[in-house]
Structures are given as structure tokens and as C-alpha cells.
Amino acid sequence: MGDPTPAVLPPWAAIGAVLAVLGLALGLLRRAQLRRQLAPEQARKALHVIMSAVALALPWLFDSAWPVVLLAVLATGAMVAVRSVPALRSGVGDVLHAVTRQSVGDVCFPLAVCVLYLLTADSPVLYAIPLLLLGLADPAAARTGSSHGLAPYTTVDGTKSREGSVAFAAVAFLCVHVPLLMFTPIGRAEALWLAAIVAGLATLVEAVSWGGLDNLFVPVGTFAVLTRLMTFDASLLAGHFAVLLGLCVPVINTMCV
Length: 257
Hints:
The protein is mainly alpha-helical. The protein is built from 12 helices and 2 strands. The longest helix has 26 residues. The mean pLDDT is 84.
């Protein structure tokens, strides 16, 4: 599947650049909240997208794991500080914590990135696909649900919408299907079934997760499913999808009540 390009920056310079970009993003989003009345959920999801984009660059910024582990530790520490220190929480912390629901997604995100980096080794496609789901499918679901969610359903984490879940599934399908077709030798039929299976499972995980844990469960689960099924042929994958669909019918029925 190809190795990432060797790092072009010294590790400490790249670490500094990553932290600077994230700090600048946090500051700009806080400014948008104050001056442009950016909604709390929009600010949170915008930071989500930016963090995912930065994380996608890590295999090309670093050719060893220790800088990524260090970044994860620093990011987690920063998230805990923003959550715990009143002065920070009422300032830049409002980008993450102005929403009313309780969430540990801010802490789960750097943990998920670190775990993915360690697991995927020299396979940037397997690293990138789970992060694309975090950075694109999750915000698409939130945006669709808030703007067009007319069919709500109740979860342990509150109310979500069927429209948001459909948006998540559609974007998740593309996040898997396109990279597999473009950057791996997997056949078209196999890529189609793999994308359908991952999109279905990830949508269910996102729907039933609580407290922001989907930021960990979705990417790590996506990686696990891909590594398990990527060697299967189209007929086996089609069978797996049929079984998944059968198992999901009760859940889908519950969502449609």
C-alpha cells in the first residue's frame, strides 16, 4: 500500500508546527465565537475537522513513533487543562465545552490518533481511512442533524436524527471506498463491499456511543474491520454484509419507531 514520504522537517520542528497550527485554530475559533456568534456545536465540529486534517499529515511529518506519542501526551494534557482550569475553560475552552452535553471526545481524539499511528506502521491508507471518518463523516452527521433532522430517535447520549445517521453512513462509505480504490490493489467489488460493511458498522457505533467515546471506537473499530476483511473476496464480503444487515434490522427498527 506504499510507505509515507520520509519526513522533511526535524522532529522537534514538526512537533512545534503541529502545536502551533492547533493553537492557532483554537484561538481563531474562539474569536469567531465571540465576534461572529459561532454556535457551540459548529465551533466544536470545526475544531474536529482541523484536528483530523492535521492528524492525517503525521505519517508524512514523522518517520518514527515517538513524536506522535509525545504529541498525544501533550494534546491530552492540554485538553485536561482546558477542561479543569477555570480560566482556560471559560476562554478557549468554550470552543470545546460550550455544548451542554458531557463528553470526553476531546481526550479520546489524540488517544485514537496515537493508537492508529502505532497500529498502522507503514500503511498510511489504513491510518487515513479511520481519520477520514472522524474528520468528515462525524461532522456531516452533526451538520445534517442540526439543519435537517426531522426524524429524531433517542440514544443513551441524547437525541440524534435519522437524517444525521444517513449522512454519516453516506460519507463514511465514500471515506472508505475512494481510498481503497485509489491507493490499494483491492478490486472494485471488494472495495464496494468493504466500504458498505465499514459504513454500516461505524454508523451503528456512532449512533450508540456515548460521552464522545465514538472518537475512539469509530477509528479503532474501522481499522480492526479493515485489517480483518481486506483479504476476503467479494462473495465472502457480500455474505458478511448480509449477516450485518440481518443483525442490524432490530436496531434500525428501533431507530424508526
